[in-house]
Design brief:
mainly alpha, about 0% strand, about 60% helix, 3 helices, about 80 residues, single chain
Length: about 80
Protein backbone atom coordinates (compact mmCIF):
# COMPACT_ATOMS: atom_id res chain seq x y z
CA UNK A 1 0.00 0.00 0.00
CA UNK A 2 2.80 2.43 0.87
CA UNK A 3 4.32 1.95 -2.58
CA UNK A 4 0.99 2.89 -4.19
CA UNK A 5 0.70 6.05 -2.10
CA UNK A 6 4.29 7.00 -2.93
CA UNK A 7 3.59 6.53 -6.63
CA UNK A 8 0.41 8.63 -6.39
CA UNK A 9 2.29 11.34 -4.50
CA UNK A 10 5.00 11.48 -7.13
CA UNK A 11 2.55 11.42 -10.03
CA UNK A 12 -0.06 13.81 -8.66
CA UNK A 13 2.19 16.33 -6.96
CA UNK A 14 5.91 16.04 -7.57
CA UNK A 15 5.86 15.49 -11.34
CA UNK A 16 2.53 17.13 -12.22
CA UNK A 17 2.88 20.33 -10.17
CA UNK A 18 6.66 20.73 -10.50
CA UNK A 19 9.34 21.69 -11.24
CA UNK A 20 10.19 22.67 -7.70
CA UNK A 21 12.87 25.19 -6.74
CA UNK A 22 13.79 23.15 -3.68
CA UNK A 23 12.61 21.46 -0.52
CA UNK A 24 11.28 24.76 0.85
CA UNK A 25 8.74 24.84 -1.98
CA UNK A 26 7.91 21.15 -2.00
CA UNK A 27 7.33 20.77 1.77
CA UNK A 28 4.21 22.99 2.08
CA UNK A 29 2.83 21.53 -1.15
CA UNK A 30 3.29 18.04 0.33
CA UNK A 31 1.33 19.02 3.46
CA UNK A 32 -1.50 20.30 1.26
CA UNK A 33 -1.48 17.13 -0.84
CA UNK A 34 -1.63 14.87 2.24
CA UNK A 35 -4.57 16.87 3.62
CA UNK A 36 -6.37 16.65 0.26
CA UNK A 37 -5.60 12.92 -0.06
CA UNK A 38 -7.00 12.11 3.39
CA UNK A 39 -9.96 14.52 3.58
CA UNK A 40 -11.19 15.25 0.03
CA UNK A 41 -10.02 12.64 -2.50
CA UNK A 42 -12.55 9.89 -3.10
CA UNK A 43 -11.06 6.38 -3.11
CA UNK A 44 -12.68 3.60 -5.13
CA UNK A 45 -11.38 0.96 -2.70
CA UNK A 46 -13.26 2.77 0.10
CA UNK A 47 -16.59 2.89 -1.75
CA UNK A 48 -15.74 6.35 -3.10
CA UNK A 49 -15.26 7.92 0.32
CA UNK A 50 -12.24 9.76 1.71
CA UNK A 51 -10.06 7.88 4.22
CA UNK A 52 -10.92 10.17 7.12
CA UNK A 53 -14.63 9.33 6.75
CA UNK A 54 -13.94 5.59 6.75
CA UNK A 55 -11.67 5.90 9.79
CA UNK A 56 -14.25 7.95 11.71
CA UNK A 57 -16.96 5.37 10.93
CA UNK A 58 -14.67 2.58 12.12
CA UNK A 59 -13.97 4.20 15.48
CA UNK A 60 -17.59 5.25 15.95
CA UNK A 61 -18.63 1.58 15.56
CA UNK A 62 -15.76 0.10 17.59
CA UNK A 63 -15.46 2.46 20.53
CA UNK A 64 -17.65 1.86 23.56
CA UNK A 65 -19.86 4.86 24.26
CA UNK A 66 -20.07 4.15 27.98
CA UNK A 67 -17.05 3.36 30.13
CA UNK A 68 -17.33 1.42 33.37
CA UNK A 69 -17.04 3.35 36.60
CA UNK A 70 -13.83 3.08 38.57
CA UNK A 71 -13.87 -0.23 40.43
CA UNK A 72 -16.48 -1.86 38.16
CA UNK A 73 -15.41 -4.74 35.94
CA UNK A 74 -15.30 -4.01 32.24
CA UNK A 75 -17.42 -6.30 30.09
Amino acid sequence: MAEAVNALFKTELVFWEGPWKGVDDLEPATLGWVDWFNHTRLHSALDYRPPVEVENDYYRQNTPTQRPLVGEPAL
